[in-house]
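Entry for the shared binder. Reason: the reviewer on the internal report wants the predicted structure included alongside the sequence.
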Amino acid sequence: MRKLVLLALVGLGAQLVDGSLGMAYGVTSTTLLLAIGTNPAAASATVHLAEIGTTLVSGASHWRFGNVDWRVVAKIGIPGAVGAFAGATFLSKLSTETAEPVMSIILLALGVYILVRFTAWGLRKDQLGKPLRKRFLGPLGLVAGFVDSTGGGGWGPVGTPAILASGRLEPRKTIGSVDTSEFLIAVAASLGFLVGIGSEDIDYGWVAALLIGGVIAAPIAAWLVRHVPPRVLGSAVGGIIILTNTRTLLRGDWIDAPDGVRYAFYAVIYAVWAAALAYSIRQHLAERGQEPPAAEPAVPADQAPPDADKAAAST
């Protein structure tokens, strides 16, 4: 029961991040499932089955808040579903001994990308309004869908920063569109895993726990996307993913590092992570300080307070 509650809380927290940043539900949830010893293919299948529900609710919530561009959803979601199905069947054929370190390496790379991308550059805003073309979104969706299935997450980490980096779609619509299109990826990946490994290794209690937490968080995250600074959140999530998957690799059979080496790595990661968070916060505050203050509404002369009349008379 304690494990189910933990999974529900992870699902809630991961969806809060995913819905407000456009990434990290799958990466965060899969990382936890791997850490507690779940088969890599089963871990990814569990997360994608839960995502069918969470992405449906998340997409509906983003639509209600006006965060969705349906043209982007169609152009990236359909090729993404093809890539997700292919990635799921590919991962299902790998042995657990091979798949676990491979998945951890993919997740670690995604974590580094998230941390560096959002810490160093933040969000680009100088290309807003220019169209996103199919020749860009199609290949992006195909690659992101494949990475998502094989890594247990990656649709958001690959798709969201790429669209944000183009600067052609405002951040809230980028996040809302990527989250909404992820429903297609979750369905396709789940079908691929059911074809590849069947349903024997999937714990549907874990699926339900992740789903419940994610469904609770989805509407809140769709509202938060207008208020939470993505730069700071991206740095925070990237550090968590890097730390957890470094731990998995160092403790695995491929490396099996001694305690001293592991602790040294952890110390370096904590230091870099803290520095990245501090830098992101400073940059966010600096960007806010550069914004022009909102103009105060003019007050008609006949409605001016008495003190103002006295001050004008005295001059």
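Summary line for the report: The chain has one domain: 2-287.
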